[in-house]
Design a protein that fits this description.
Helicase, Ruva Protein, domain 3, 2 domains, elongated, Phosphatidylinositol Transfer Protein Sec14p, disordered C terminus, alpha/beta, two-stranded antiparallel ribbon, five-stranded mixed β-sheet
């Protein structure tokens, strides 16, 4: 009896298809490597004699991406192995990339409530000349990021990843030729070689134009793919993400603003100016004047205490910052702004994860009112 959580959920058809694909592994390996020696893919040996149930979970990904067609699934697996050999993907985790350039473009950070690794991708405020200056370097960096995530998918407790795509600051115009070319290539790599690795994709800080484009392409999206998409506006961002990701596990960029320490304002008392002594003044009058001055000072002090402002507390600052955060952003469409994932949004119809290629045509339904946008890779 199966002990693997995911294998237990296989349908009868999936179980049979997995057995057939497993039997074809020697042919797959021979075609890809001219050798039938087992190859280790994502920590799992592609061995037809293996009793490791993780192999079943891995193979069913390729099968689901091809609608359980064993022959086309075998070809997809073969092509993936050939690509990995030519791209030298097995060694890509050992490569180094400039963190000052790519560190803010995307990274893996913690997990969701189900233990699935989360990958964050940022599309706004990028220096395109640096990020996409060398297309090959960008592509290798992005594949490395994907491999980092896949490495965390053990196929025992978790079998997929979560993606968060942030469009804050993204513009509809101004994408360079290199940016478009790199995006197109990454989409192809991800859909051809990483099937069924997407659990949920969050689209956050989506601009107004993203919503318009999504409404146009929504009827074209297979229902299975659309169900994986979660779109949230700026004011719903934290609430939406924390439904599946613990707040403590969110990156700093999504944490609520912290109250800043405020230095207390010291009131500098003015020194009273002593009146010039007048030798001709009657001592009795001087005493009366002093009493009057004392009374006036006392009254002024009480009055000052009554109107002095309350101390600025951290709670007050939080309220101010909350008000500032809630102000609606004015969207300016300018040609000089960086990164416009327009192609990514439209190319979502090309399908990000391979499941769509093998899935049945979804019934056409009215466009959902949900404001959304598409994205690049898985």
């Amino acid at each position: 009896m199966s002990q693997n959580t995911f294998v237990k959920t296989f349908t009868k058809e999936e179980t049979e298809a997995v057995d057939k694909l497993k039997a074809l592994l020697p042919d797959v390996l021979k075609t890809a490597f001219q050798s039938e020696e087992p190859y280790v893919l994502w920590g799992v040996a592609l061995d037809k004699e293996s009793q490791d149930e993780r192999l079943n979970v891995l193979l069913v990904k390729f099968l689901r991406a091809r609608d359980l067609n064993v022959d086309t699934s075998a070809k997809m697996l073969t092509d993936t192995l050939v690509w990995r050999k030519e791209f030298k993907t097995d060694n890509i985790l050992d490569e180094s990339f400039d963190d000052t350039i790519f560190g803010k473009v995307g990274y893996m950070y913690q997990t969701d409530k189900e233990g699935r690794p989360v990958c964050y991708n940022f599309y706004g405020d990028l220096d395109q000349d640096k990020v996409f200056g060398d297309i090959n370097i960008f592509i290798r960096w992005r594949v490395q990021l994907m491999e980092q995530g896949v490495k965390l998918v053990d196929l025992v407790q978790v079998d997929s990843m979560v993606q968060v795509h942030d469009y804050k600051g993204a513009s509809m115009f101004g994408r360079t030729a290199n940016a478009k070319a790199a995006t197109k290539e990454i989409i192809k790599i991800m859909q051809d070689n990483y099937p069924e690795y997407l659990a949920t994709k969050y689209f956050v800080n989506v601009p107004w134009w993203g919503s318009k484009i999504f409404k146009l392409i929504r009827p074209l999206l297979p229902e299975a793919t659309f169900k994986k998409f979660v779109v949230c506006s700026n004011d719903e961002l934290l609430e939406t993400l924390t439904q599946s990701i613990e707040q403590v596990n969110l990156p700093e960029v999504y944490q609520p603003p912290k109250a800043k320490a405020v230095e207390s304002v010291q009131v500098v008392e003015e020194k009273s100016v002593e009146p010039k002594k007048d030798t001709d003044v009657n001592p009795k009058e001087v005493k009366q004047n002093e009493e009057l001055n004392n009374n006036e000072e006392s009254e002024n002090k009480e009055e000052q205490e009554e109107i002095s402002p309350a101390p600025v507390t951290e709670e007050f600052i939080e309220v101010i910052e909350e008000i500032e955060e809630s102000k609606p952003e004015v969207v300016e469409v300018q040609k000089d702004k960086t990164v416009a994932p327009e192609d990514e949004i439209i190319e979502i119809t090309a399908v990000e994860d391979e499941e769509v290629k093998g899935s049945k045509k979804a019934e056409k339904k009215p466009a959902n009112d949900v404001a959304a946008t598409g994205a690049e890779q898985q």
